[in-house]
Amino acid sequence: VAGLGNYGLRGTRHSVGMAVVDRLARQLAVAEGWQVDRRCCADVALATTRGLELVLLKPRRLMNLNGLSVTSAAEIYHLHPEDIYLVHDDLDKALGKVAIKLGGSARGHNGVRSCITALHSNEMTRLRVGIGRP
């Protein structure tokens, strides 16, 4: 589960993907387990829930380069694009509204575009979190 955003701009609406992954880590009781993984240039926490092993990821790169971190983590943890969930902001959704999308285009989102390009696939599931337009 990759929370897309700009690592240096945490707390902004554009980096809501990271906030969602932080919240998930707290709910799974692994929030104290974040580790910097230099191999994928990201913060990583591992969790298990309902028989599933999860890799939680917060790239330490700019949004436009998040795909490099996601791809490196996928290689390290032997994940396929269809195993990956991208959590990201969506300007076209009202603040706080969420939607799940399987595959498809980036719809103008540079972080998703970066993941599609780096993984050579658009088969990732996306959790789109509405941030509304300014």
From TrEMBL:
Transmembrane segments: none annotated. The keyword RNA-binding applies. GO terms for molecular function: peptidyl-tRNA hydrolase activity; tRNA binding. The keyword RNA-binding applies. InterPro entries: Pept_tRNA_hydro (IPR001328), Pept_tRNA_hydro_CS (IPR018171), Pept_tRNA_hydro_sf (IPR036416). Its EC number is 3.1.1.29. CDD domains: PTH. Pfam families: Pept_tRNA_hydro (PF01195). Keywords: Hydrolase, RNA-binding, tRNA-binding. It comes from the Eukaryota. Belongs to the PTH family. This is peptidyl-tRNA hydrolase. It comes from Spizaetus tyrannus. The lineage of its organism: Eukaryota, Metazoa, Chordata, Craniata, Vertebrata. The gene is Ptrh1.
